[in-house]
Amino acid sequence: MAVGNAIKQQVRQTGMADPRPVKPLEFDGPLPQPTKDMQQIRADLDRAGYAIAAEVITAAKAREMRDFLAAEIARDEAIDEERVRRFYTDSDDLNRRMSGAELVNRHAFFRDILEHELPLQITRELLGPQTHNESYLIHSYGANVTRPGSAQQAIHRDRGGNVPLSAGAAQTRFIWCLDDFVEENGATRMVPGSHRDTEPQSWTVRYESVPAEAPAGSVLIYTDMLLHGTGSNVSSGLERAGVIVGYCPPWWKPMINFPMTTDPQVLKGSSTTLRQLLGYSSVAIGFDEPWTHAPQAVKDLLVTPTMEW
User: Fold this and answer.
1) Which of 82, 112, 139, 252 has its CA 20 to 30 A from that of 98?
2) Whole-model pTM?
């Protein structure tokens, strides 16, 4: 389903000042900075609830991905603007988005990052071992391009349902920075320390937050426990493109049913790991339910759920 054909926006910018009281930060210590040091990344995740991994891909590769994404969004918008705009969590119509189902189908580098060692390692560490060592899954996936003039997204957690915060993280989250993320162009805003907050998020307050500034090629890392949101783009001509990936345990229902949305041809010759992450297994929590009525091209892609990574 195209992004815009999901739930339409219900909120529009009114130009009026936000009357809600501000909830100040309750966080001591320095904010996370871009780093290649895995120990520092782990320490930042534990202390602040987010980390910034530097130089995960080259600036040139980020630009290549960014240029391809821009061209694909423009192509889709020319066909039907509803495909790429008016996502219900955006505050206005200026942002442009592309669903993960489309990203997987359109270029190998949007498949490659899903099985990159950095998110897989962090996910293993933060979500812990699973029943029968079954693979984690891609929970959600998509690209977000914040354009000049777009308003700040409401601060929120990427946590659905009524799962208590005391249960701990159910998702790991990664934002691949295809542009430099700076406050002016809408760098993702974080509420450091909120991953330890046992109170449910509230829509009646404005959370004080900080921009997670990072150069192109970096990856922002957090979990569904952290309060955050896309920043407002107050620049006169800078866009901010990011690709967002979430990983979840095998018992958590992903947002995208990849075996039903992915062209089987693009996964021919793909790794077992990638297929596991995309849910190409008939086994769940040790029980096998054969995909009897699946097309043969999908059956041909089935793999064991047991992690080899």
Assistant:
1) 252
2) 0.93
